[in-house]
Design a protein that fits this description.
globular, 17% strand, alpha/beta, 33% helix, 6-stranded parallel beta sheet, 253 residues, single chain
């Protein structure tokens, strides 16, 4: 079995072809993004960004504790791919309500679909505000380049030339992760991030993400562009108190 890639640092709609397969793509952005990076990223986080941006990478399974910049690095990579005209849109997928299996409860929240999704787009909105000026965010939204998608809306979708960030994957069932993975079409990338210690699923349904890591953490998967990355407590950059708390809870468990 291969080791986790934990990592050693080292226009208009058109039809294109990837390995002789015709791929329908939306047009790319026609303006430049003014992306702000951070100077406190660890070597593993920098290497993670390089891995996601590598043209041979299709899927990254990303595991790490709270505060290890899983969301920041994943969304930053998506913005850089948009900037480089390698994808047309950024999709943010996450479980709804207390678990992905409870996504049907979305209907009980007030308002239309955008109102119902608003509480679950907080992470994306916060990271976008951290990385982009307000004007760039407005342009992306005006062109429908940023989408928040609950997992039960993904079935039947065909995501070509898209960057898909799947957040809170520890709260998805195996079937739901399979549904998301099988939406990937040509020229797309997907990052599936999880903190296995913070699952909202009932105990009997937990562990799906870990099972997937066990299955895909090998050289055969890497030859298909699928990588497993593990961040740890040393990569927690949110705050010193966050790092201390995560470490103490690990001792409790």
């Amino acid at each position: 079995m291969a080791k986790d890639k934990t990592i050693s640092s080292n226009n208009g709609n058109r039809i294109s072809s990837q390995n002789q397969v015709k791929v329908f793509q939306d047009s790319k952005i026609k303006f430049d993004l003014n992306i702000r990076n951070r100077d406190d990223l660890t070597e593993k986080q920098k290497a993670l960004l390089e891995l996601i941006l590598d043209k041979h990478t299709k899927v990254v399974f990303l595991s790490g504790p709270a505060g290890s910049s899983k969301s920041f690095c994943s969304i930053l990579a998506g913005l850089q791919l948009l900037q480089n005209r390698r994808v047309s849109s950024l999709y943010y997928v996450r479980p709804i309500v207390e678990s992905a299996d409870a996504a049907s409860k979305l209907g009980y929240l007030p308002g239309d679909q955008s109102d119902k999704l608003a509480p679950y787009s907080t992470v994306l909105e916060e990271k976008l505000a951290e990385m982009l000026p307000e004007g760039d965010i407005k342009k992306l939204k005006a062109e429908d380049r940023l989408n928040v998608i609950p997992v039960n809306y993904a079935r039947g979708a065909n995501w070509a030339a898209k960057y898909i960030f799947v957040d809170e994957a520890q709260s998805y069932s195996l079937g739901e992760i399979k549904t998301l993975l099988t939406r990937i079409a040509g020229h797309s990338k997907m990052v599936i991030a999880a903190d296995p210690d913070q699952s909202d699923l009932p105990l009997a349904k937990q562990g799906g993400f870990n099972k997937i890591i066990e299955s895909f953490n090998n050289e055969d998967a890497q030859s298909h562009g699928i990588f497993c990355v593990k961040l740890d407590e040393e990569d927690i950059v949110r705050s010193s108190i966050c790092k201390y708390i995560v470490t103490k809870f690990k001792e409790i468990k």
